[in-house]
Amino acid sequence: MDNEIGVLFLKSSSTKLEQMTGYLKTCLGKLSDEQIWERHGAHENAVGNLVLHVCGNMRQWIMHGCAGASDVRVRDKEFAAGGGLTAGELTEHLEATVSEAREVIDSLPSARLVERTTPQGREVSVLEAIYQVVGHVQQHTGQIILLTKQMTGKDLDLTSPRPR
Fold first, then answer.
1. Is the previous residue joined to 119 through a cis bond, with omega within 30 degrees of 0?
2. Less crowded by CB within 10 Å, the N or C end of the chain?
3. Domains parsed from the chain with CATH numbers
4. pLDDT tens digits, residue range 27-51?
């Protein structure tokens, strides 16, 4: 039974990352490059910053924390960026990062979920590391969806069937 739960958790986590990637790609596809980097004050992050941030977080917690890759994340750069990447380049970066993270998750034996790891200096189980990433991506995807709706003045048609 525990193995079935572990397999279900890994599959659900990978599927949820795929779903959120679709939402993020929809948002990036509806915004101009200027809108992607738009901020209304130093206290705000642009959509571009949030995309870089979820990719950095995913790399640190999944590729480093779960798969043992080098920790190359420079978190401050994610928020300091003020442009330089187009919507297409951000989409490619997001797709590549999520693809790599999903490969790690999809190849993990469920027995590894209880192993300990230390991303960001926090000791957690592999399960907790994956759960943190999925929740983190969902949180920032919601922010990006709201920003996209506000900037475009349109519904994004992300749910089906459409409630009316």
1. no
2. C
3. 2-152 (1.20.120.450)
4. 999 999 999 999 988 888 999 999 9
Percent helix, percent strand, percent coil in the chain, to nearest 5: 70, 0, 30
Which residues touch 43 (CB under 8 Å, ≥6 apart)?
none
Residue with tokens 């928020």: 79
If we measure between CA atoms, which residue out of 34, 66, 37 comes closest to residue 134? 66
CA atoms of 62 and 19, how far apart (whole Å): 17
CA 151, 134, 52, 26: dihedral to nearest 10 degrees?
-40
Contact 9, 110 (CB under 8 A): yes
Q: Are 94 and 55 in contact, with CB atoms under 8 Å apart?
A: yes
Query: Which stretches of 1-116 are DSSP H helices?
Result: 2-30, 33-36, 47-58, 75-80, 87-107
Identify the three-state secondary structure at position 123: coil
Is the distance from CB of 79 to CB of 37 less than 8 angstroms?
no
